[in-house]
Every structure is written in structure tokens, then in C-alpha cells.
């Protein structure tokens, strides 16, 4: 599959090729300008000398299309042709030289993003002079510089790729201002893809068993927002920095709090800081952040905002696609296959919702994989898979193509008896088994858990909340 297609060429198109030259084998260019065609071939870019507005010259597939000639009218025609040929592709279009308002409007109506170099230069000037600049990165650095000792960057328990990447990314930012930082997590890294990410990228994180909180002068939370809720910290432990994209359920404390529920991944926020601060992410961090964005947005098909695309585009120039392919294709464990089989067999279908109890589990991350796979069933928009291990009931929920907020659904169902959280499309829960373990000889623990959890889940579903607004509640941050 052709990942990137360049239609037409110009100085802007040439700059695009220059930035992606190491991956030129995945780039195809189509231009009828003989001079640019020769230049592109000299750079080992597969080039077709043809009219870039003629879809018959296009390859069979393309994931990203960059329309890049200097002629605004031809760019409009090429963008329209590309959209017809590749309805699911991301199309980025250069406005060209001196476009009319009608031409720019036409491009904006068909392309996912329109690039105006003149506007970009103006924006950079504004950034350099302090005009209209986002103050969050500068405030973050100020908080970091005020620390008298090391920073502990805490991911949520059993971290996913977004949490892992965000933790090492924030640690990298702290180190740029001379603040030592340790990314850490509680629980375990169980998912095969998550383990592959850590191993292939050689990501170094500490566990809570290895640290002493007294050794740190600052605490940062990433991909969650409250100490002691799904992390190894004591509840309400003082926190300095919070960076998250999940809507908070209660007051969030910290000297620096950046919570943006409209964004698809916390890794997007970390990339934004890096970019604003001029910090080069490097291959390993860029690959981890890009993977974090892709996983949390399910390859940009759920809970995705424009900044997620922009962050991914920026990181792609530094990330290692070969590593991503290795991480994305790990072998499935026998336990994951077993849990998936039981989830299918035990599914309780009510309308467009599927809930399934799978009994005792050896790998709780298999629940998330089963919830993802059940969402592929015809007509299903909400899934919930749950099981128990080591005295705790674990659950994982997913949603797609519905206004149901599964994060709020699980909170309403299970927060009163345990802890639950997440966002509109993806959520999880943990509930201590407690007295449920004291079953009679005529009962099985799996049946007791199923009755207890399913009853609460479907009761909450009957009065389920809708997707929350894009802006978080106005909670105090001090």
C-alpha cells in the first residue's frame, strides 16, 4: 500500500519530500512538471510524470495525500479527484500562490487540512514575539524549574501505550531544564503490544515497588488526574503537574493542570509541549508518542481531534515505522485467545450492547482485547467484558458509533463499590470481590460475579449518560 501520495510539486512539496526522504520508498509523486519530476527522481522518489488532477494516474491506494502545486485551481481539482479516489485518506492541501477566497474555501471543503505557508510564517513570528502564544508550555517549564529535586512522573496502573509514552515524554521535558525525572507505574504491563513497545523501544520505567516518594520534590500525573485513583500513590497525595485527556469526575489539584477531553490522547499534549518548546523527540520517544496516539484513537477512528492529526504528522517525521510494525503485530497469548472465546460464548446481548463475564483470568489486559473484538460484531456499538483475579473484579468497556459515554456508564455502575474511569469510547473498572468470595457450595464464584456486575451494568445502562461536552468542568486547581 502507498502510504503517502504527492500530487503536483512546488517548493512546499519539495520541502515535504526533504522531510520524509528516509522513507521515500513509501512515497509516490505525480507531477507533469518535467523539472520537478527530474528533481524528485534524483532523490529516489517514485515519480509518475502525469497530470496530478487525473485520477487514472493514481496508485490503487493511499493513506495520506499531499496536494502541493503552486496553482490554486489545480490544487482544488487534484484534492477533489483524490477525495473521490480515496474517500478514507487524509488529504492535506497547499493553498498555492495567491489563492482566491473561493479557491481556499473549495480546498477547505474537501481537504482534512489546508496549509498556507504565509499564514504559518506569520504564526511563527507571533510565537517568537510572544503574540497569541499558548502559555501552557512556558508555565510547565516554570513549575519544573521551581522544583528543588527530582520529579516522579506517574502513569496510571497497568499503563497503556498512551500513558507509557506520555510518562517518558514529560520526563524528557523535565530533563531539558535540568530536572531529573523518573517515569513510573503501578500494576503490570500485561498487553502483548504494550510489552512489545517497552521491549522494542527499550523504554526504561520504574515500578512503585522500586521507589521512595520521599526522594522526590515533585509529582506529575499523566493520562489520569487524581492521586490514589488508579495509581500507586496514596489518595489525595499532593500533586504538582497533571496532564490528561480524560474528563475529570471530581476536583483536580495541581500547580499546573492541563486536561483537554476533546483531544484523543495525552501523547498529543506531550507532543505539543515538545514542539512549542523546540525539543527534538528523537526516534524512540517519537515512535512511542505516535503509537500512543494511534492506539487511543484506534488509528484515528474514534475520539479524534485536529491536534491529534497534527501531532501524528509531526511525529511521523521522527518515528520508526518498522518498529511500529513490530509492536503492532505481536503474537497473541493462549490466555487472550481463551478469554476471547469465553467472552463470545457467554455474551449477553441486549439491543446494541454486549456484556460478557469470563470468570477467573490470568491476564486482565485480555479483557480490553476481548472488548475491542466484540465491538466488531454486526450491530454492536457498546461492549463490556469482565472477569476476576487476585480478589478483584476487572472490567473493560468500549463504544463506537453511539452518543453513549461508557466512562460515565462504568462510573455510575461500579464506582460506588470500587473504582471506574475512562472517557466516552473506552473505560475500565476495578471492584474488590469482598464478601462475594464467600459463596455457598451450590454456587460458583463466576456466577455470583456475573449476577452482581451484570445487574449493576444494565441498571446503569437504562439511564446512561451521553458523551460529555468538549470542555472540562470548572474545578479548582489549587
Describe what you observe in this structure.
This protein is α/β, with parallel strands linked by helices and 478 residues long. The chain folds into three domains: 4-115, Rossmann fold; 136-328, inorganic pyrophosphatase (n-terminal core) (Alpha-Beta Complex); 334-462, Diaminopimelate Epimerase, Chain A, domain 1 (Roll), CATH 3.10.310. Helices cover 39% and strands 18% of the residues. It has 16 helices and 18 strands. It has helices spanning 11-19, 34-42, 72-85, 101-110, 117-129, 136-145, 161-176, 192-200, 266-277, 282-296, 306-316, 321-328, 334-345, 365-374, 406-414, 445-462; strands at residues 4-7, 27-31, 46-49, 64-67, 90-94, 113-115, 151-155, 181-185, 206-207, 218-222, 241-244, 256-259, 348-350, 353-360, 382-389, 392-399, 419-422, 426-432. The strands form three sheets. The chain has a six-stranded parallel sheet with strand order 3-2-1-4-5-6, with helices on both faces. A six-stranded parallel sheet has the order 9-8-7-10-11-12. Strands 13-14-15-16-18-17 form a six-stranded mixed sheet, sandwiched between helices. It is globular and about 80 Å long. The relative contact order is 0.07. The model is unreliable at 125-133 and 467-478 (pLDDT under 50).
